[in-house]
Design brief:
single chain; 174 residues; alpha/beta; disordered N terminus
Length: 174
């Protein structure tokens, strides 16, 4: 094994070492409320489903893990998590080889769907927040209270650590 990146500070100088010229982004807002008709596909999960369904990806992304962190993990239901898992599994597998690095923004010929990948929910601990670049200020990213999760097996089986332990115990999501 080599260096997995743990402990490497992310700075502007570090990011300048990478070529992001092929990267693309789409901002999708989550807007509270009940949306109907045409507005339904403009926000949140429906907008994400629509955007990802137009993408094609290299075959090595088939069945890839879906890694997420969001507020109020403990307030979710099994049904909602499965819907989220299906949403982030949208898109197709392009025929032939695509250049590494992500989706083709709908330019590839799709011959198969990506398929639903396993869902991993990242859980940052107080200690990981304390020792992060932002310190305790990053604690706002702790997505709920542990006692709210322990009664929900459908969540507990998906929880992963924010980063590997120094001793190499938990592979986690990051």
């Amino acid at each position: 094994g080599g260096d997995d990146g743990a402990g490497v500070p992310v700075t502007a100088a570090t990011l300048r070492c990478f070529d992001f010229s092929a990267a693309g982004a789409k901002i999708i807002a989550s807007v509270p409320g009940v949306h109907k008709g045409r507005d339904l596909s403009l926000w949140g999960q429906e907008a994400m489903r629509h955007a990802l369904s137009r993408e094609s990806f290299p075959s090595h992304f088939r069945g890839s893990e879906i890694v997420g962190n969001f507020s109020s993990i403990g307030a979710t239901s099994a049904k909602w998590l499965f819907e989220m898992q299906k949403t982030f599994s949208r898109g197709g597998v392009a025929q032939g080889e695509e250049p590494p690095g992500g989706g083709s923004r709908g330019t590839g010929v799709v011959d198969q769907q990506l398929g639903i990948g396993p869902l991993q929910l990242v859980w940052i601990t107080v200690e990981e927040a304390r020792t992060s670049l932002q310190g305790y200020a990053s604690g706002a990213s702790i997505p709920g209270r542990a006692q709210n999760l322990t009664k929900k097996d459908f969540i507990m089986t998906k929880l992963h650590r924010w980063r590997k332990s120094i001793q190499g115990g938990d592979a986690g999501a990051g």
